[in-house]
Write a structure and sequence with these properties.
The chain is an alpha/beta fold. It folds into two domains: 316 residues, Metal-dependent hydrolases (TIM Barrel, Alpha-Beta Barrel); 51 residues, no CATH class. It is 47% helix and 11% strand. The strands form two sheets. Strands 1, 2, 3, 4, 5 and 6 form a six-stranded parallel β-sheet that branches. It binds zinc ion. Zinc ion binds next to loops. The site of zinc ion (ZN) has 4 residues, from loops.
Length: 377
């Protein structure tokens, strides 16, 4: 892989670093039969490409829709954990489950990728604190509090009609219990109000596992300067999301304009096929064609991702930013980051911009290792 006339051997810098990606949704693909050992390019992940990309630690999120019936939440997450565990156990020479920073170090020394488990959407605990113990014991080491719709106790960033201020009393108990267990609180997807409530209570550093900078792309999923400063003060960390719609204002605007123009047809497609993007595509091919043509004109590349990293470094220093790709959870990625094998392009870009090897190591994974060690041991 070459990168824009770079003389420096960026791969050697990259290989020396501990590289951690704080978020992917590949477990959902595994549930539909994807094999992590394969080179199947319908996924953004896979062991061969993770090795190529020099990934040392990958967080695998078990995602649940907010609509999941309460009695199915725990068993659905258990099934996802079972699926991931089964796939990992079939590849013991290259990947291993990981519950602590110490285990991550051991795995790295043994040439194995560390797989860390997470939950995306607090709806998973079915409004019962005992389920936090259960999931901790099953290996879950961070939980994203909410998703694109608010749940019973935490308000989502997308919620424009908030039923309470950020967290309920039960929501506050969840944060206290997570602190006690040593499970990292993830504020990605949380509203500003929920963020404020979390930061009043938490005694541990928090993460925003897969979010970007609001000032560079004003999406509700992104973090304001004030929030970034609060996370830095807390000793926490922001994993930059690779989704074009959170990275580029122009891309977001073009995407929105297509949504608005074809809103009736898109609504109908979602009504008929809420789950299957493939079926929606078949139902309204002309909309997808128009969308592809429009967004092809907007350039988003590795440099755009590094702009977000750079912004946080300039605002609060190099200790509070990392990577949160959202691979397999998003449908449009920057040029040069099409899948996990291309993560070294970020190292190349950071070197081009004059970053020191020390700071690059922090950004690629050192910062996550620090928080992981502090919260999970
Ligand atoms: Zn997400």
């Amino acid at each position: 892989m070459s990168c824009r006339g770079l003389n420096h051997d960026y791969m050697s810098t990259h290989k020396k670093a501990f590289v951690a990606d704080m978020h992917c949704d590949t477990v959902l693909r595994m549930m539909k039969g994807f094999d992590i050992a394969s080179d199947d390019t319908s996924s953004h992940m896979g062991i061969p490409r993770m090795q190529q990309g020099g990934i040392d630690l990958q967080v695998f999120a078990c995602w649940l829709d907010t609509d999941t019936p309460v009695e199915q939440c725990r068993s659905t997450v258990d099934e996802m954990i079972d699926t991931l565990e089964a796939q990992i156990s079939r590849n013991p020479e290259s990947i291993a489950l990981c519950h602590s920073a110490d285990e991550a170090e051991k795995n790295e020394a043994g040439g194995k990728i560390s797989a860390v488990l997470a939950i995306e959407n607090g709806v998973a605990i079915a409004n019962d604190l005992a389920n936090l113990d259960h999931f901790y014991n099953r290996g879950i080491r961070y939980m994203t509090l909410t998703h694109t719709a608010s749940n019973d106790w935490c308000i989502s960033s997308a919620d424009t009609n908030q039923a309470f201020h950020g967290l309920t009393d039960f929501g506050r108990d969840v944060i206290k219990k997570m602190n006690k267990l040593g499970m990292i609180v993830d504020v990605s997807h949380a509203s500003v109000s929920a963020f404020e409530e979390v930061m009043k209570i938490t005694t541990d550093p928090v993460i925003a596992s897969h979010s970007c900078v609001y000032n560079l792309c004003p999406h509700d999923r992104n973090l304001t300067d004030e929030q970034i400063k609060v996370i830095a003060k807390n000793g926490g960390l922001i994993g930059i999301n690779f989704y074009n719609g959170y990275l580029s204002t122009r891309w977001m605007e073009v995407d929105d304009s297509i949504d608005t123009f074809y809103s009736d047809e898109i609504d109908e497609a979602y009504r008929l096929y809420p789950i299957s993007r493939k079926k929606r595509k078949e139902f309204i091919p002309h909309v997808y064609k128009a969308w592809r043509e429009a967004i092809a004109k907007v350039e988003v590349n590795v440099g755009t991702v590094v702009d977000h990293i750079d912004y946080i470094v300039k605002l609060v220093g190099p200790d509070y930013v990392g990577l949160g790709s959202d691979y397999d959870g998003v449908h449009r990625l920057p040029d040069g980051l099409d899948d996990c094998s291309m993560v070294p392009n970020i190292t190349a870009e950071l070197l081009l911009r004059g970053y020191s090897e020390g700071d690059i190591r922090k950004i690629l994974g050192g910062n996550f290792r620090r928080v992981f060690k502090q919260v999970c041991g």
